[in-house]
Specification:
Layout: E1 3-7, E2 13-17, E3 24-26, E4 29-30, E5 35-37, E6 42-45, E7 48-54, E8 67-71, H1 104-132, H2 136-139, E9 148-150, E10 166-169, E11 181-184, E12 194-201, E13 204-210, E14 214-217, E15 225-234, E16 239-247, E17 260-271, E18 279-288, E19 297-301, E20 307-312, E21 319-331, E22 337-354, E23 357-371, E24 379-389
Antiparallel strand pairs: 1-2, 2-5, 3-4, 3-6, 6-7, 7-8, 9-16, 10-11, 11-14, 12-13, 12-15, 15-16, 17-18, 17-24, 18-19, 19-20, 20-21, 21-22, 22-23, 23-24
Length: about 400
């Protein structure tokens, strides 16, 4: 079960690889999907080369298939002698379309050639499976050791798997430019006849033509588990595989950027106005002075005139302190809005990557408002606040 050849009804055939270990190569290019053959192509199956020919119409009534396969002519590349393989089991009968009478000896010769080629393909496929120990795609890799696994080379020779595959996470910091995982591995064995390397991450191919034994993955984020697979592809379609798992480190919440709109829940915990327990819900907007990391920011409290500035205190624990001035929630004793002082003390509790930036997602803390008005009692209230990024 190496490849399938299907007539298309118009004198051509459709060739498709069936998930074989070594792959199917047409004119030097490995198949990754079905391809239509018109004649003149050379096909590499394991250690055998086949050539597709298109039969010219003959005067006799045409009834034999228009397209067939025969062994490559002398112009084909010279390959090393095929290895000796154990006798394959007797193949199942091959059923071919009946040949209409009238072709004479020429038709019988073509029929014999087609039968011989089909039997040779079946025998080669069975011999390859016997030597390689089965389809490594189904068994998880022939000769897999630890995290490394390898497939057999053409002709049944066993190659050592790629070795020393390792991953070095970059110096992860709040700057997204540092979110890089660098993979390194030893060069593929010389007998593989390396053509290129391919790299997959969590089952998805992220690089298809890597020339050197190293690759830098810039598409990662903090706090991820990444399953990498590196495949060395030889010129004959043979492959070697190595795998490794990387866990990228989490970043400290204190390194996160406080930005954007926040939904803030507020509850009075202290007051000299006999309103402890009252609640409010509002939206705050933060505009930081940087694009990532910890820096000063201004905040605006919507539906009020309070504008303030936060100042990070250390930042290691995600603590922010700041103050602002403006009309907030209090009125003076005459019922008019009054200018207040607002102090905030915030601590970031959770952060995540949002739009490619390590951003704060929740914070908790306290807000204190103080309002002094001539002829009125100085009002003082403390709110407990819980905020979530909108």
């Amino acid at each position: 079960m190496h490849a399938a050849v299907t007539p298309t009804g118009d004198g051509r055939v459709l060739l498709e690889d069936l998930g074989s270990t070594g792959g199917t190569v047409v004119n030097g290019t490995r198949l990754f999907g079905p391809v239509t053959l018109r004649g003149g192509e050379q096909i590499l199956l394991g250690g055998s080369i086949l050539e597709v020919i298109g039969a010219a119409p003959e005067p006799a009534p045409p009834s034999t298939p228009a397209t067939g396969m025969r062994a490559a002519a002398s112009a084909a590349p010279v390959l090393p002698p095929a290895p000796i393989v154990p006798p394959p089991p007797t193949p199942s009968p091959v059923f071919l379309p009946p040949v209409a009478p009238g072709g004479g000896g020429t038709d019988r010769k073509k029929l014999l050639i087609v039968i011989a080629v089909v039997v040779a393909i079946v025998a080669a496929a069975i011999g390859f499976v016997l030597l390689s120990g089965g389809d490594d795609d189904a068994q998880g890799g022939v000769g897999a050791t630890g995290q490394n696994g390898g497939t057999g080379a053409a002709g049944g020779a066993t190659l050592a798997p790629l070795t020393n595959l390792s991953a070095l996470p970059g110096d992860f910091a709040a700057d997204p430019a540092t979110w890089i995982v660098t993979l390194t591995w030893d060069d593929a064995p010389a007998e593989l006849g390396l053509d290129h390397y391919e790299v997959t991450r969590n089952g998805k191919r992220i690089a298809a033509a890597v020339a050197e034994a190293t690759f830098a993955d810039e598409g990662v984020q903090p706090g991820e588990t990444l399953d990498y697979e590196v495949v060395a592809v030889g010129t004959g379609g043979t492959t070697e595989v190595a795998e490794t798992v990387v866990e990228t480190p989490e970043l400290p919440v204190g390194d996160s950027l406080v930005t954007g709109a926040w939904v803030v829940q507020m509850r009075i915990t202290k007051s000299n106005l006999n309103d402890v327990g009252a609640t409010a819900r509002m939206t705050w907007d933060f505009e930081p002075e940087c694009t990532f990391g910890v820096c000063d920011a201004t905040f605006t409290i919507r539906r009020t005139d309070v504008i303030g500035a936060t100042v990070p205190s250390g930042g290691a624990e995600g603590e922010y302190k700041g103050f602002g001035f403006g009309f907030f929630l209090l009125d003076d004793c005459r019922g008019d809005p009054i200018n207040e002082t607002v102090d905030v003390d915030l601590t970031v509790k959770r952060a995540a990557v949002q739009a490619g930036v390590w951003s704060a997602q929740t914070f908790k803390g306290a807000l204190r408002e103080t309002a002094e008005s001539q002829g009125c009692v100085t009002a003082r209230r403390t709110f407990m606040i819980t905020a979530t990024r909108a």
